[in-house]
Request: fold
Amino acid sequence: MVKKYVLSALVVMAVLVAAGAVIAWITWRDMLDQISSPYSVVNSGSVLLRIQPGTSTSEIAARLVEADIVSSEWVFRFAVWRSGRDRDLQAGEYLFDVPLSPLDVVTKIADGRVYLRRITFPEGLTLSEMSTIFESEGFGVSGSFINASQQVDLVSDLDPGATDLEGYLFPETYALPSDATADDLVRAMVEQFRAVFGERLRGRARDRKLSIRQVVTLASIIEKETGEGGERSLVSAVFNNRLRIGMPLQSDPTVIYALEVAGLYDGNLTRENLQYDSPYNTYRYREIPPGPIASPGGAALRASLEPADASYLYFVSRNDGTHAFADTLREHNRNVREFQIEYFRRQRARE
Reply:
């Protein structure tokens, strides 16, 4: 009889163990499925989640559940354990705009794929204009950008005489984490300038016996004179031809820059302004100005060192974004009459 009861007990235990094993297996498979399947609630919209330094795994899990990025803290913690990356989770700001599986969430945070904010600086801007964009895009106050742009040590090997970073902050779109500072951005912009103004262009500058500062200054004037890509080498030819024969560059943007620095520019360039005494005024001084007047892009930098094979000495705006070029003053005056005097006369007649 005792043997019968023992046998029955063993059978029951075996059944219970088997049932437990089945339940455990089903639970295991369910958990694996949960951590591998996207959690669809995040479809309702994008979520920007900030994880502070020192945040524990359990705290991260709670934040993710609260933001409806994962279904439960246990699921996320299981995914962390399963991935083996519990020590890799990184602080930062993370954007979740599509459904992700808990394993993918772990990977994103462990890899530090933080949300990057973009800021774009077009070609031809001054430091002051860049600082305005910096503030308007919410990266910080303009003053912090101006202060950061005084770090001349960043270009001391390129331009020992630099008094600020005018001309050396390369115009481009930059992607930065939310905690990036003005110093971080300025360093990235100088690094991009170095990448664009590489050894080939530096060699061209040496061949033409120009300092890097002179090249960047000339490129900045070219950048301000034309936004038409096909014209940059022609404008460069005009300026290089004038420099060769000792003729003033007579570039309006240089005068405007001088007036802006002095706080005297009101948006209207007059004949009287052209007599303003400043080394930047290329109507009064024949040399390349003492420094850049804006940040040139790569095309302008290349054009300054690789002018077109042309004998032009003059150009005037056609008022359509392009310019008319001329070899002689007589031809230039004819262009001025056609594209400036007659153009504005026709405009007034239509009013």
User: Anything to note?
Assistant: The longest strand covers residues 47-51. The chain has a mean pLDDT of 90. The longest helix spans residues 2-36.
